[in-house]
Design goal:
With about 240 residues, the protein is of the alpha/beta class. It contains 8 helices and 11 strands. The protein folds into 2 domains: about 5-80, no CATH class; about 85-230, Rossmann fold. The protein has helices at about 5-15, 50-65, 90-105, 135-140, 155-165, 180-190, 195-200, 215-230, and strands spanning about 20-25, 30-35, 40, 65-70, 75-80, 85-90, 105-110, 125-130, 145-150, 170-175, 200-205. The radius of gyration is 20 Å and the shape is elongated.
Length: about 240
């Protein structure tokens, strides 16, 4: 690997920036693209990517899927940090959702200032944060590889987190509650200054409509919807 490309790749990995290393299989030339499609580094003989090539590379980068591009003679090696799941509320659904997400490769954090809920015994191996949700969200700084799920049913905890998350580039944001509960939530968030565009990003009621009843089933529905949104698949919102 060209030293300039190697140094750019190492810098991106240290900064936890998703990048794609594109190799021309005929010449061996390489270039490095960021998740915004911009060129970060290139070697001699680097491939001259078309717009269609860049779109295909970014699709693989978004899907965390390395492989050869069809009919392009190019191989894409994806280098990405683990996606993050920030859960507000150390509740029963969280106990099922956290291990599911960890198995799927997410770095999971649970935010809940209620010490009796957020315990190591209930959430072994999960990062627990006992700060107020908006303060924790500000510090965690959700990015395009972050999902935010609020599950407390308590506006004092869920709303502050949503106010931060909906102004962030987080790829998936959802909140637990019926359609009636969600309508009241929208009124509160609107009064707090969020625009219609912000609120349109909120997936609610949470999860796909699979008839989920138990906490584990609701966790499955949320995990399924989060996966579909991450990979840009159409979803059907959950019923009351």
């Amino acid at each position: 690997m060209d030293i300039a490309v190697f140094d750019a790749l190492q810098a991106a990995r240290q900064a936890k920036q998703p990048v794609a290393l594109v190799t021309d299989l005929a010449s061996g030339g390489q270039c490095l693209l960021g998740d915004d499609g911009q060129l970060i580094g290139a070697s001699a003989g680097a491939p001259n990517l078309t717009t269609a090539d860049i779109v295909a590379v970014l699709t693989r980068l978004g899907d965390d899927h390395s492989g050869r591009l069809d009919n392009a003679g190019l191989f894409v090696h994806v280098h990405s940090p683990a996606p993050r799941l920030l859960i507000v509320g150390a509740v029963h659904i969280s106990q099922a959702l956290a291990p599911m997400a960890a198995i799927a490769g997410y770095a999971v954090s649970i935010i809940d200032p209620r010490g009796s809920f957020a315990t190591e015994a209930r959430f072994p191996g999960v990062t627990l944060i006992d700060e107020w949700p908006d303060e924790a969200m500000d510090e965690l700084d959700p990015d395009r590889r972050t999902a935010v799920v609020t599950l407390t049913h308590d506006p004092k905890l869920d709303d502050p987190a949503l106010l931060v998350a909906l102004r962030s580039p987080a790829f998936y944001i959802t909140a637990l509650g019926s359609r009636r509960t969600h309508a009241k939530r929208v009124d509160r968030l609107t009064e707090a200054g969020l625009s219609a565009d912000h609120l349109a990003r909120l997936h609610a009621p949470a999860g796909l409509d699979i008839g989920a009843v138990s906490p584990a089933e609701i966790a499955v529905s949320i995990m399924a919807e989060m996966t579909a949104v991450r990979h840009r698949r159409p979803t059907r919102m959950a019923a009351d």
